[in-house]
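Quick start: what a row looks like.
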Amino acid sequence: MASTTRRAKIMLFGDSITQQSFSASDCGWGACLSDKYQRRADVLNRGFSGYNSGWFLKFAATEEGKADLFEHDGVKLVVIFFGANDASDPNLNERQHVPLETFKTNIKDIISLTRSNFGRDTSIILVSPPPICHDGRLRFQKERYKNKASGKLERTLELSGKYAKGTKDVANESGVPFLDLWTKMQYTSSGEKENWRGFLSDGLHLSALGNKFVGESLIELIDQLLPELSVQHCPESGNINSSSVCPGIQNVAPWHDEIDHTQPEKVFQSS
């Protein structure tokens, strides 16, 4: 029987941490998801460098934004990942700062737009902003601005923690899965990780190690909380082939071992 399945879609909404998530050199976490869902879903990157949650909503209200963000069918999952810019210090970075309660309202509005455009059957994952490494941010300042570096932290671990908690509150209220990167990156059940700062390239953005961590953490969360979207690889080869299974997303086109080489057209014929 020929497959009439249209390839599903996974949307990534966020800021620069999302925009950079397809980075080849940094093993982007979005690319990690794309690899996991090969032959099943296209992962569409809608990250906007420098944006806060409010600017994203402003863009979403335009005709260009509506088309870019929401005019897609077959969307199975939306990952919403904001807060890194919203959590900027209101005095040192007023331009990007969004007050915490406004940020929480914005995330609720993004969830509402997601549900109204894609339907309530579309799964949503909220991701908290990552922790901030103070030494990394100050080093980045010196490297980029030289003698003009202010030596002041426009983003802090404490502020990002408050916005991570705010994201968790919204996730609980909205009934959607939550990936607490702020905590998961820093701590294990036995205490603080000694090497968590290595997850960040400049104290804020993800290094290759950090991208790998985020990708693996998202897949782990999907496996645990969204089993219908969990891809189980072939138990023998470990690859995504004819023995892989994903209950909620069918593979597109027959697997190669379903094709009779003497009558290859047969498997492609509509039943």
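That is the whole record. The chain has a mean pLDDT of 93. The two ends are 5 Å apart (CA to CA).
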